[in-house]
Design a protein that fits this description.
The protein has about 500 residues and is of the alpha/beta class. It folds into 2 domains: about 280 residues, HUPs (Rossmann fold, 3-Layer(aba) Sandwich); about 130 residues, Isoleucyl-tRNA Synthetase, Domain 1 (Orthogonal Bundle). It is built from 17 helices and 16 strands. Strands 1, 2, 3, 4, 8, 12 and 13 form a 7-stranded parallel beta sheet that branches. Bound molecules: 5'-O-[(L-methionyl)-sulphamoyl]adenosine. 5'-O-[(L-methionyl)-sulphamoyl]adenosine binds next to β2, α1, α7 and β12. The site of 5'-O-[(L-methionyl)-sulphamoyl]adenosine has 18 residues, from β2, α1, α7 and β12.
Amino acid sequence: MQVRTLPKFYITTPIYYVNDRPHIGHAYTTIAADAIARWHRLRGDEVFFLTGTDEHGEKVEHAAKNAGKGTKEFVDSIVSKYIELWKTLNISYDYFIRTSDPEHERIVQQIIDKIAKTGDIYPGFYEGWYCVPDESFWTDLQLKEGKCPECGRKVEKVKEETYFFKLSKYQDKLLKLYKQNPGFLAPKHRAKEILNRVNDGLKDVSITRTTISWAVKFPIDAKHTIYVWVDALLNYVTALGGPGTSNFNKFWPADVHLIGKEINWFHSVIWPAMLLSAGIELPKQVFAHGWLTINGQKMSKSLGNAIDPIALSEKYSLDAVRYTLLREMPLGDDGDFSDNAIKTRLNNELAAELGNLLSRTIAIAEKHKGEIKGTPSLEAGLKTRIEKIDKLMDKLDTFNALAEIFAYVKLTNKYINENEPWKLQGSSLSEVLYNLLEALRIIAILISPFMPDTAKEINKQIGASEGTLKDCRFREFKGKVKKGDYLFKKVIT
Ligand code: MSP
């Protein structure tokens, strides 16, 4: 296997707005990031996996008012829903950042001070449009039929004093960044839109508000507060303790900012420009994934089709949800998600292939009393396959990585059918069982980033302990087999 030169891996999710309870769209980003973080841990990388909540701004302030609660009380109640959700979904984050943490606010102010000292911040007057749900500014020309061009919702007129950040100054530097680091904008098909817009020229951006009090105070002028996106983007740095701290030195720059496509502009343009201005090293990659639709429709509160990930996991099992989300469409593409999609994956792949492989193997192994020993015939091609999976995971191609893993599951099932171990005894049975149990031990390792509970259950039934990628080669089988529950129960379609 390839020797890695960088044993650290820092991956982030967007920080979620706390205006409402989380739905499956939020879970999608975090589950994908979790699988990638776990894969890197399997490799032996030192991983820092960050998620958290974006708590300031107009949208959250309004939501608290509508709920008839104090803002802090309201955000605390939503934050606890996120924490509970990540626990239920088996999310292995290393740190949960809240932008209302005083430490975050302090470091944000420090970095803004630093940017101001470079001369990149100047006072002025903003007149234009603001989309509260997206917390984004738009010009007349950008609006689509008078609505937000991003989400199609209504925009508000804003006329106020503000401080601008000289984004225009960074056009050439950004273009150079994209050119010299072709992996920075990912996946490739999302790079074009950013390149076109940056090539067209950049306007300075408003970075303070005078009408929003639920925000970080602007250190240069007490009348102003910091625009929520500036405060939010900085979470990726403040969560490590800020520049100069040992955790920051260890993990920064971020290896991947995993985000949804609708917030690519903030991450691929404004964020690197802010970092360039503050003299902070740039992240290695911004990966913008696609959007989930539900039965072909956009998920929204008004349509009442926002899916609760906890209820869904209770219905189909958590790992069926995690698997379907990552197997239904490539991470970079839009795709549809439905009950039918889960049912089909659950019945045809998880129960019929993986579950069946385990239960058939265990049933035969339990009857076999002698030793389990053999020659590793199911190891043929495995090393190359794992190297391929590893490369796919480097590209965040969870979709094809899972396809490869399941091709191996299928191959192992075929091996059972061809060898008919139920007809065998003695050393020929031992030979087949050896291959099946070692294959299952390795399959458990390979699926563990995607379906951690299932991997644990396989290990329990074959008596193996948790492994890493280094353990993905056939060796002496040392486990003690013990029948357990079916991995997955089929559902009626
Ligand atoms: N707070 C900002 C992000 C700041 S990051 C410095 C934000 N929050 S959000 O809660 O509105 O959305 C966060 C992420 O949720 C989106 O980027 C996207 O990754 C994910 N999704 C929300 N709905 C989604 C779908 N329907 N489908 C896929 N992902 C979606 O934006």
